[in-house]
Specification:
The structure holds two protein chains of two kinds.
Chain A lengths: L1 H26 L3 H25 L4 H31 L47 H5 L5
Helix pairs in contact in A: 1-2, 2-3
Chain B lengths: L4 H18 L8 H17 L7 H23 L3 H21 L3 H26 L14 H22 L11 H6 L6 H12 L1 H24 L15 H8 L1
Helix pairs in contact in B: 1-2, 1-6, 3-4, 4-5
The chains are: A mainly alpha, B mainly alpha.
Chain lengths: 147, 250
């Protein structure tokens, strides 16, 4: 009973990681955050595999996790290269920009409109530059405390 | 319906509502309420976790599981992708700790070295290259937050309720005794056993994984190296200058 209870605990944590990763993958629009969520789902699966391997006293689960890590490294290399290429095309990491991907002679498929931007992102009118140049160096105006 | 299943269902629903409130949405209200709800559902799930063995091992499991799950939720709810990446590093460390608690020492170290050390740093490189300000509007509005939170709740609820149905002592082969575990997965010479298993039973798979890594390396280099960035003008457009011509003559 003891070992079964232990396996149950770890499987619940693995399921939680997988579920949270799924929610992130479905809802976020930044391609890099989506990819992080996919890696998180892999972590949940790895945790479950190690738990099953311990329940059956077998090294197979741990071996499979080792190969998952190797494949995840390959996947990260290729996907980051592709994301970089997509970024060079569009200047944006937004996945929603690629929903118009289609052939020239096909009608556009519109899933639904993009969600509204929050209020503080609204464009306000800019004042025309007036007076003389204060001479503040560019680094000072671009300094930010937060990332 | 008796037993833990109603609690599983309630916890999954509560967690879904909490995640939906925490995900970046058009309006900012309810983020802290969502965090409270998600923590409450985590606490409800933890009441279902069995106490196993020594209290120190139990406490370590609770702490590591809480760190892993909370930082996972923070990863997908942070507005700024750099923070997401840093929280994901914490998730990886928590997972490595859980591996260690299970006796998988080699996997714990491999996770920290390969994931947190290599993959995540590459992520941060690309993030800094592409979006150093981290103020993009698409990070502030998520995509169908309610539907995705509901589907996550359904998945987690189904998985955990299936667990209680499947993991019963009478259906399983008898679980290993501590002595058998000491001779098997929990052996003292852990790395030697893992190496023997890996290169003894899975030699061809190791070779294939090596080939796959090489192919991925070459593929990534070709993808990034061949096509020039589209936002810059191609080199052929640039008019030839006198300095170029002189350099060519020499």
């Amino acid at each position: 009973m003891n070992e079964i209870a232990l396996a149950n605990n770890y499987l619940v944590v693995g399921a939680l990681l997988f579920g949270i990763g799924l929610v992130g993958f479905l809802s976020r629009r930044n391609m890099i955050v989506m990819f992080l969520a996919a890696e998180m789902m892999l972590q949940g699966v790895s945790l479950s595999l190690v738990a099953w391997g311990r329940l059956y006293n077998d090294f197979g689960g741990q071996m499979l996790v080792l190969f998952i890590i190797a494949v995840a490294a390959c996947e990260a290399a290729i996907a980051l290269a592709l994301i970089l290429m997509l970024y060079y095309r569009n200047g944006s990491l937004d996945i929603a920009l690629w929903q118009q991907l289609r052939e020239d002679n096909l009608p556009p498929y519109v899933d639904h409109e993009l969600p509204e931007l929050p209020d503080d992102r609204r464009e306000w009118p800019r004042l025309a530059p007036a007076g003389r140049d204060p001479g503040i160096p560019r680094e000072k105006t671009d300094y930010r405390r937060h990332v | 319906m008796t037993g833990p299943q109603p609690i599983f269902m309630a916890a999954a629903l509560l967690g879904a509502v909490g995640l939906w409130l925490m995900l970046p949405r058009a309006s900012a209200w309810g983020r802290s309420l969502g965090a409270v709800l998600a923590l409450a559902s985590l606490g409800m799930l933890f009441t279902l976790v069995f106490g196993v063995g020594h209290w120190a091992a139990n406490g370590a499991f609770y702490v590591l599981a809480a760190v892993t799950v909370v930082s996972a939720a923070a990863t997908i709810t942070m507005r700024k992708p750099v923070y997401s990446a840093v929280w994901f590093a914490l998730t990886l460390l928590g997972t490595a700790g859980l591996f260690l608690l299970q006796g998988a020492q080699f996997l714990a170290v491999a996770t920290v070295v390969v994931y947190a050390g290599a993959i995540l740093v590459t992520f941060l490189f690309v993030l800094m290259l592409a979006d150093p300000r981290g103020r993009a509007p698409y990070d502030r509005v998520s995509w169908e937050a309610m539907v995705s939170a509901a589907s996550g709740a359904v998945l987690v609820g189904m998985l955990s309720m299936t667990l209680t149905g499947v993991l019963r002592a009478e259906d399983l082969p008898p679980p290993p005794k501590p002595k058998e575990l000491q001779a098997g997965v929990l052996a003292k010479e852990h790395v030697a056993r893992v190496g023997a298993e890996l290169l003894g039973g899975h030699l061809i798979a190791v070779e294939v994984a090596g080939t796959l890594l090489l192919a991925a390396l070459v593929g990534a280099a070709v993808i990034v190296g061949r096509s020039r960035p589209m936002l810059q003008e191609p080199e052929s457009v640039r008019p030839e200058t006198t300095a170029d011509r002189e350099g060519g003559r020499r």
